[in-house]
Sequence to fold (252 residues):
Amino acid sequence: MPAIVLVGAQWGDEGKGKATDLLGSRIDYVVKFNGGNNAGHTVVIDGEKYALHLLPSGILTPGVTPVIANGVVVDLGVLFEEIDALEARGLDTSKLAISSNAHLIPRYNKVIDQVSERFLGNRKIGTTGRGIGPTYADKMNRIGIRVQDLFDESILRQKVEAALETKNQLLVKTYNRRAIEVDEVVEDLLQYVERLRPMVKDTSLLLSKALDADEVVLCEAGQATLLDVDHGTYPYVTSSNAISAGARTGAG
Fold:
C-alpha cells in the first residue's frame, strides 16, 4: 500500500507528534525523513511527557519500527542522549533503524553554524546553531560524512581531512577561531561506532519490502511546509524539504 505522509501546513508545532502517536496502533513503520535535531515532537502518554528531537515519534509505540532515513542529518551525541533518556524510563529502542546513507553532523559544522550566525549580526537567519545547515551544504557540495563512512576509518579520515582544508581556512582567517584538528573529529565520531553498528540498515530496501508486504509506513516530517527550503518563507526556512514530496527522496 502507499505510504502515509504527515506534514505541518504552517511553521511547525501543529501537533504532528501527537497525530503520529494516535495513529500508532495502525502503523508498522514511522519514518523521519528530513531535518535533524533542530525540531521536536512532544508526546504525552499516560500523563508522561516525552520530548523527541532526532528520534521519530513512533519509537514510543510498541510494535512500531522507527526509522531515521537517508534525508536526515544525525548528531550522534544527541541521538544516544535521547536513546539513553528513553531507556532510563523503561522504553525499548531496540527496533530503531538508521540509514547507512544518512549524513552525520561533525563538530566542525556546529562551530561554523554558531560563529557564522553571530558574524551576520542583524542579518542573522535565526539558525539553531546545531550544525544542520552546514551539514546539508556539505551534502550538496559532496564533502559530507555519511553513517557508512564510520565503518572504514581510513575513508572517514580522508573525508574529514578534505572537509577541514577549507573549513579551517574559514574559521581561522574569517572568524578568528582556532583550527579544528582532524584527530579530534575522527575520535569524536568513532566513539559511537560499535553502539551504532546494529542499528544501521539499508532503510530504502527495508521500507520498500514493507510496502510490498502491505505494511503501513508513516513518514513524519520535521518542521513544516512554510519552513521548507524550496516552498517556505525563504530565507527564513530550514535546510531540507519538509513537505510531502520531500518524503519520497528523504525516505529513499
Observations:
- DSSP finds nine helices and ten strands in the chain.
- Residues 30 and 58 are 5 Å apart (CA to CA).
